[in-house]
Amino acid sequence: MVLGSRIAGTGSYAPAKVLTNAELERLVDTSDAWISERTGIKERRIAAPEECTSDLALRASRAALEAASLDARELDMIVMGTITPDRQLPACAAYLQQKLGVSGIPAFDISAACAGFVYAMSIGDQFIRTGAARNVLVVGAELLSRVTNWMDRNTCVLFGDGAGAVVLTPATEGSGRVLSSKLHTDATLTESLCIPAGGSREPLTHAGLDERRNTVQMVGNDIFRIAVKNLSSASRSALDAAGLTPEDVDWLVPHQANLRIIAQVSTRLGIPLERFVVNIDRYGNTSSASIPIALDEAVRDGRVKSGQTVLMCALGAGISWASALVRL
Ligand code: UT7
After folding, report:
1. Is any atom of ligand 1 closer than 6 Å to the C-beta of 34?
2. Nearest residue CA, atom 12 of ligand 1?
3. CA distance 128 to 135
4. Cα–Cα nearest to 195, from 159, 232, 231, 167
5. Of 29, 38, 114, best ligand 1 pocket probe by most atoms within 8 Å of the beta carbon
6. What is the rounded distance in angstroms from the CA atom of residue 249 to the CA atom of residue 177?
7. How many other C-beta atoms are found inside a 10 Å radius of the C-beta of residue 317?
8. Is the pTM of this model over 0.85?
9. How far apart are the C-alpha atoms of 253 and 291, rounded to whole Å?
10. How many CB atoms lie within 10 A of CB 251?
């Protein structure tokens, strides 16, 4: 009998170039003090001109496969959360699959913005639960610097580039396991966080390009309020589904959008901030990549250990939000 899936390995990759708050002060009317106090971000990574999203995903995937002692040819499926694919068509996961040197297995993208990785992991888990797949590569990869308006201080200070991945394999008696996952979408705030042009609703025109309508636009306050509320409730739902309480959580790995959001979720859940994995100061908001990067760092530096219980929660454009509870 299949007991569900477990995380057999994690990996991540962040581009070498660091963009500091001090450098942003020279681009837009902002300050290190404002960015640090309002978001917790100190610096972020920016991909090299020759890098594309599947390159970042490849580095993270190889690290996760190595940690899982698995060859890419043993994979049954690749699911990638991304809103910044290499091209609008085809799926970024197809390019990743090609770079991994495999073919024939399903490889597809999930568009759930910052919740993309948790969505993708939940999908991988369901395939393994039903026996339809054994080994699933789950990736969150973003190259947000290519869809950022570098003249808009409301958004350009927030985002960064990076990728993270996990390999899911069947759980066995006594092994770790994905305990529960909860996925949600609510379309009431679609216009508060979007890339307006470039789709069927508003094809990109010269005028649209001049107005940078092909870049991320956000009404930060709207998203902030709903993030605190929904991340807290989704976390509780994942705990309820597994019959656990906040006291049972060893680590919470939240989406890294704003340190103030993370702190408020900590208060609402009654889980102290010391039990949160936070790296927003070094990477900013990397959308779907933020959770798997933070998880991988915490696994590799020994904070998150085998047998511990980890809660993940994320919210982004859509509004889409999700939570997952995992025993490592
Ligand atoms: O990952 C997907 C989900 N995204 C999120 O969860 C993001 C949620 N939202 C946020 O994290 C916050 O709303 C922001 C960090 C985006 C903005 O912080 P805020 O405290 O909500 O600021 P605000 O938008 O209310 O703006 C306050 C002031 C404004 O000036 P006035 O109108 O009061 O004079 C802004 O123009 O701060 C100004 N401001 C800035 N000042 C310096 C906005 N951006 C900047 C900036 N530097 N970069």
Report:
1. yes
2. 220
3. 8
4. 159
5. 38
6. 14
7. 22
8. yes
9. 6
10. 23
Dihedral (CA of 27, 28, 34, 39) sign: negative
Question: Residue 102 contacts by C-beta under 8 Å, 6 or more apart in sequence?
Answer: 72, 73, 75
Structure tokens at 161: 């580039």
- Closest ligand 1 atom, residue 317 Cα: 2
Distance in Å, CA 111 to ligand 1 centroid: 25
Q: Which residue type, as a one-letter code, is found at position 321?
A: W
Q: Render pLDDT for 262-310 as a digit per residue (tens, 0 to 9).
A: 999 999 999 999 999 999 999 999 999 999 999 999 999 999 999 999 9
DSSP per-residue string spanning 225-266: HHHHHHHHHHHHHHHHHTT--GGG-SEEEE--S-HHHHHHHH
Burial (CB count <10 Å: 0-12, 13-18, 19+), residue 175: middle
Sequence-distant (6+) residues with CB within 8 A of 16 are 45, 48
